[in-house]
Structures are given as C-alpha cells and as structure tokens.
C-alpha cells in the first residue's frame, strides 16, 4: 500500500481543519463565573489583591491560588520541526498548538504554546528563564541538536520546575518501553542485547542514555551518524554528547555494525536500512524504524526477508507506533501533581516500565473502536500501548509521581496513592467517581457469583474475565463449552489462565430441577413441560435467571444480544418483582460535576399517578443506598399548572399523593428542568420545598426519559450509565444491545452491588 493510499486526508482537509470554525486548535476558558459585579470584584479588583499579597509572602502559594500547578509552556524556535527541518518559529506554531491540545486531551494538563524567534541558545535560555515563573513545567519542542542539549540542561539548573525536551526523552521513553516488551517476547535480557542506533541526534542520544540506565551495556551499543560509526578515537563531526557513546569497534558503517545485532534503533532518514542489512542481524531481530514521517524501512519490507522480526515505527498506520503522546502528558501529569522540581532519569525509567506493563494487560474495547474494530493483544504486533487506551491517565502518572517522591524532587508528596489514581481517572471520565464508589463497596463485601447469560460472546467473555480479575466476584459463563473456549482464544485469552467457570445448560447437573421449578411457574400460562424444557436448554436468559432464582448464582447480566424489552420479558418468566418495590429503569447522568438520577427510563411507557409515586419512592430508596441524599423533582413541560395538560395532571396528582404519604425525602413538582436544577431561578416560586438542586428526576413518561438521556449523551454533554434495573427479587442487570466490554463490566458490578444491598436490607 502506497503512502498516498494510507493517508486518510487531503491537504485541503488539513488546512480546513486548522482554519474552521475558529483558526487554530486552542483557546482560553475561564474557570470562574463572570456573571455578577461580585464575581468581577473577586476575580480582579479589589479581590485579586488578597492572593497577590499571599504569594508575595510565600511563592509556593502560587500553586494554590493560580493555574501555575497545572500549566505547562510548550516552547520552540522552529529549528527542527517534525521531519521538515528549520522553518522558523512561526511555522512551528501549528505543531506547538497541537502539542497543547494533546496535553489537555490525554492528561487534562493546561498548556500554552510560545514560539521564540531566536536561534542563539543564550537568547532562548534567557527568554525561558525570565518567563519560567509563570508555569509549573516547561516542554521544549522542535529545537535542533546539539543546541537542545545545552538549552535543556542549563534551563533545568536555572529553573525550579521540570524542563523536558520531548524530542529527546519522549521518543526515548516510548522506544524503551517497546524494547522491554520485545525482549520479553523474544526471551532476551537487557544486559545481553546488542544495539545499533542510527541517528545520533537529540532523540537518538537520549534513547541510548535511557536504555543504558536501564541495564543495556555500554559496550553493546554502537551509534551511527551521517559520517559513520561513532568509534573511540573518531574526531570528524564529534561533540561531547556523541563522544559519551563512542565504543571500541572495527565497524565503520551501518552495515558492518548490524552484523549479529539484536536491536536496530532508527532515528535517521528514509531508506537507510536495507533488507540485506537485516538479513545479517541476529534471530528475532528488534527493529524500531522511527524516522519521521517515513521510516528507515517499511515493516512489509522487513517481514518479506525476516518474518521473525518485531517491527515498530513512528507511524500510526502500522503496529507498534512509537508515539510520544504516550509519554509527555503523563510524565507532566505526575510531575505537576507532586510539584516536582525536575524530571529525572528515575522518573523516565518509571514511565517506560509502566508503559511496558500496561501493554501486557487486556486491551479495552475503546482502543478497538479507535482502530476501526481491530482487536489488539500483547504480542509481536502490540508491544506498546495504544494512545487511546483510557487507562493511561490513571496508570502512568502514579509511577512517575512515586519515582519523583522516592528521589526527593517532589515538593508535595502524595499520601494516598489509591485515592490519587481515582482522582486521575475522574479527570477525563466523569463516570469514574460513581463507578469507583460502587466498586469499592463490592470489593469490601463477600464475593458474589454473577452469571453472564451470553457467555459465548467474545465481549462478554472479556468482561467476565475483567470482573473476576478485578476481584469483584466469581464469573460464570453460560454457553456451549467448545464455542466458549474457541471465543476465549478469539478474544486473546488463554482458557488455562483465565479459569472462568463455564456452564452448559443442556448438560448442567441441575437441569431437571430447573425444569421442574420453571414448569411450576408457567404451567397455568399455556406452557407444556416440553416447552419449559426447551426454554431451559436453549434460552440462555431463562437458564441464567433460574440459576439466580434457585441460589446457584447471586446475580446475572444479559442484554448484549437481545433488545432490552425481550431480555426483561425472559427474566420475568423466572424472577418475580420485589413485593416491596417496583420494576423500573434508573439511568445515572454525569454532567458538569453533577450526578443526576433519572427514572423511569426503560419499563413503564405511560405511568399514571400511582406509577409515578412508586417510581419516585423506588428511585429515592436506590439513591439513598448509593450514598446520596435524594431531592426529587417531577419534571414536566408545565410548571405548577402552567400550561395544563394530560401528562401534567398525572404529575400533579402524584405530588398530592406523596403529600398524604409523609415520605422521608424531599420532592416537588411539576416543573421544568431548569427550575429543578437551578435554585436561583425559583424566585417566582417561594413555596418550593427543595432545599437545593434536584438530583432525582422523575420523568412524566418513558419516551421523554429515554430521549432526554440519549440526547445529552449523543451531544457530548453528559455520560450516561444504565439504565440500572431495579425492583426484582434478585439482582439482574440488562446491558445495552451490543454493549462494549466496559459497559458489560459496569452492569456486572452493579448486579453485585445490588445483591449486597439486598442482603444488607434483609
């Protein structure tokens, strides 16, 4: 496939992307309201004088009263822009803006690009030194070698914040992570591998420095530049940084250096590595052809002559992309969170080891979605994590932060690392806090057996494995043994290692007892015994629900292969409603720092007043059980009778019924969403009983509930969990049709959580 075929955009599309709807890729967003005169007084004069005086007394308080602690400067002079060369400071601005976007997107780090129109290292050092007090860290970018070495070193000595040249260390860290895993796969040890580096520039020298610090022996590394091998005694084209990596060798050109080599690290130019050279390398060679934008050799050219090779490039259209976005956002995230004074070698090594470790874990569905459904698993074509792995934000920074603490460069050590990981997850995923709360309860409780009804599906198998691996409970898969085992392998799991229990309905030893139980329920509903036998043998929901009803499991998850209504109908044949509750769906909406509970979102199409009362009471109880204080708002298109309509009449009647019942939670209605959620808008309704924003929204009908929750999620305004099924005698959760692994896992966790609550209330 040609480069033109691989490219997914035209020049015109790239230009349009950067120009519309607003030129550039970054903007400034205020973090404080500017609505009233008081807001203005606090934000600027006279209120701003108070933190000014405090910072003058103690400069470290700038981290508490300003954005300094989460602000990084991305600085370049444009002398080495990507692989394009010296095009000037202004031409580098699109790249630096892009870097700022990546900081925000992947690690929630605020950054601003600064382009310096100077090529003299002393001028650059002076500029950055004088503005450095503004920032929590400095990211140097696209500054040519060897000037970049001096600039970074001197700035780090002058400034008491991290100074990090990503072109050097970012590439070094990611390639080191790949090297760790490639050695693991091929059975090599770092202190034994023979490495050849082609391209002794900033990234190349930094890579050698890092891998040597990790255990690769100096004498086993040969560096090659455009003059040839860097050997001890060479004088042409040398500098102090190259000299540090000179070795005693008879090799003088790349082809000679590669004879018997285990590893090729390419940071040079297109075409410098040939198939003939690769043939002379050691068995199972490790080839990282990272020249940008075109690698030293294409992976298909390597595999044509060396199918045993593991290949990585800097390109996104090939496996094992050495992508710096895997490093710098999370390094700075960890460094900023402990207010580190620098990024030292130990922090870089910690990052590399963490990336290598993460790549060996099961790859979430979110990653597959980013790669057009391509399933990825640890192996020769997946030795480096995907940049779209959502776990990176909570996985990598703690390693970096811990290394900073261990080496004494952290100003503010983290005391509770588990809480820190939780806070990291919440930065980019608003559902994380809610789900972690649920998971925490489940982990502390006795382990529950959760049956996964659709156990033949690869996504369900992976979710069950994740559920069990996380210690959330025991997972039971319902399905035909051969097909389950086959799909385990398809999902990248070893059946011998996963140790998941598989139950075949036809051969299950308690099959006859299940038939007798279900026949007793259905005999007077038109079912013959053979019909019931068929249901137990062939209908996975009927069988799984019977397991739960008869105590062979504590809860179940289904829904991946059938519609919600069909799955619920199947379950209700076997499991009764809770006599003290009501069957309903409750969705959790997480938006702009708010957690809202919406009901009924899945069961009762057109509830009457009594239905609405039961929905409100059931939702309030569920919300209490989750640790929240319910404030219930009955929503409608009308507000306290204006305008009046059929649906609003039902809501008014429901509120009146609650008035007579004397319930123990706040409620009010009927009202619009803005009145429910924004107390400041209630000035015209002094009689309202809600003491704050509503957090439980009772919808007038299922269509309004379903449409509203799906709409806010589709528009990107919120994250929606659920609907959570409530009101059955046993814990059952129904996942959305074709749900991802993570959603299935969430529903399984909620099933275990619900069973804990049932047992606590019994």
From TrEMBL:
Coiled coil: none annotated. Residues 168-405 form the Malic enzyme NAD-binding domain. Its cofactor is Mn(2+); Mg(2+). Pfam families: malic, Malic_M, PTA_PTB. Its EC number is 1.1.1.40. It is an enzyme of class 1 (oxidoreductase). Residues 23-156 form the Malic enzyme N-terminal domain. Keywords: Metal-binding, Multifunctional enzyme, Oxidoreductase. Signal peptide: none annotated. One of its GO terms (molecular function) is malate dehydrogenase (decarboxylating) (NADP+) activity. SMART domains: malic, Malic_M. It comes from the Bacteria. In the N-terminal section; belongs to the malic enzymes family. This is NADP-dependent malic enzyme. It comes from Phenylobacterium conjunctum.
